[in-house]
Design goal:
By secondary structure, this protein is mainly α. It has one helix at residues 60-88, and strands at 3-4, 9-10.
Length: 89
């Protein structure tokens, strides 16, 4: 989403002038990440801009949820095996 640093507000893409300026103050706006960068702003080949962002550690509650899902599905898998054994025994 385009951002005008001098006005301090976000702009919708249709409101930005064709030259890439703010319609209110006329200064250039930062294009944001919704569109691919212009040819002059392109990163060097072989680099991924998304790879540069640090996502941070996984929260504890997500680790607990993941472990709980693995334990539950393992238990249900064992129940399924037991059911199959009883059906054919």
């Amino acid at each position: 989403m385009p951002w005008c640093p001098s006005c301090g507000r976000f702009l919708s893409p249709p409101t930005v002038t064709p030259e890439g300026n703010c319609p209110q103050c006329g200064r250039p706006v930062e294009p944001g990440r919704s569109r691919p960068p212009e040819s002059g702003d392109a990163p060097p080949k072989g680099t991924d801009p998304a790879a540069e962002e640090d996502l941070g550690p996984v929260p504890l509650h997500m680790k607990i949820l993941g472990a709980s899902v693995v334990i539950y599905l393992g238990y249900r898998f064992l129940q399924g095996i037991e059911w199959v054994v009883h059906q054919f025994a």
